[in-house]
Amino acid sequence: MEYSETEQVVEESLEFPVMHSTVIEQIGAVEITSPYGDSVTIQETLDPLEEGKYLTSNALYTAIIGNLGETFIGRKYYDDRSGTAFGTDVDDESIVSF
Prior knowledge:
alpha+beta, 4 helices, 4 strands
């Protein structure tokens, strides 16, 4: 499934509160695909956590999203509010960003 569908799947597939083991049994095999084509299962995403229970769908969704890898975020260090990329030096001091 696409990354953007994760919240809907969580809400529609489970009744809350739900045990961590139940999440793994019911939707653990569901794959989330990154914009770059990489995929990871919900189980792989939640395995590092030691949660016993998720009280709400939002708590589970946050746990899943918070543990996705770098391929699920946009361009690293992208900033549409400045004229230069983070961590780069500006050689031309006449360039001013307002």
